[in-house]
Amino acid sequence: MRNNPRPLCPAESLRTRGWEDDPLFQVLPYAAQSKCGLLGAFMITEWPDVRSIVWAESSLGGTVTGDPEIVKSVTDRYDALRAEAHPQHVSLRILKEVIERWI
Predict the structure, then answer these.
(1) pLDDT tens digit string along 8-17?
(2) Model pTM?
(3) Which of 8, 31, 53, 101 falls 20 to 30 Å from 2 in CA-CA distance?
(4) 8 assigned to some structural domain
C-alpha cells in the first residue's frame, strides 16, 4: 500500500524523478502570442524509411493521418512553435521553479 493514496500529477512526477531522463521540454512564452498549433494536442511520429504520421486532437476527437500535405502543415506549425519557444535549458529551469513554487 502506498503511503500517499493520492495519484501524482505530471508536475509532481517530474519533481520526484531525475530530470535527465525527461523528454524535450520547451516553454512557449505567453509574450510570443503564437497561436498556430495550439487548438489541440498533436504528435508527429517519424521513423527511418517510413513516412511520417500525425495524430491531432480536436473537440471532435483524435485523428491519425499520413497524408503528406497534412504532415507537412503540422510539421511547419511545430517548427514555428519551437522557433518562438525558450531553449530547453531555460525551459527546464522555468519548469523547476514553477514546480517548486506550486507543488
Answers:
(1) 455 555 555 5
(2) 0.65
(3) 101
(4) no
**Residue 38 exposed, middle or buried by CB count within 10 Å (0-12, 13-18, 19+):** exposed
Residue 14 maps to a domain? no
Which residue matches cell numbers 473537440? 59
Instruction: With respect to residue 94, please indicate whether it lies within any of the assigned structural domains.
Output: yes
* Per-residue buried b or exposed e for 47-75, using 16+ beta carbons within 10 Å of the residue's own CB: eeeeebbbebeeeeeeeeeeeeeebeebe
When computed from its CA atoms, the radius of gyration of the chain, rounded to whole angstroms, is 17
Structural domain that includes position 82? 26-102
Number of domains in the chain: 1
pLDDT of residue 19: 55
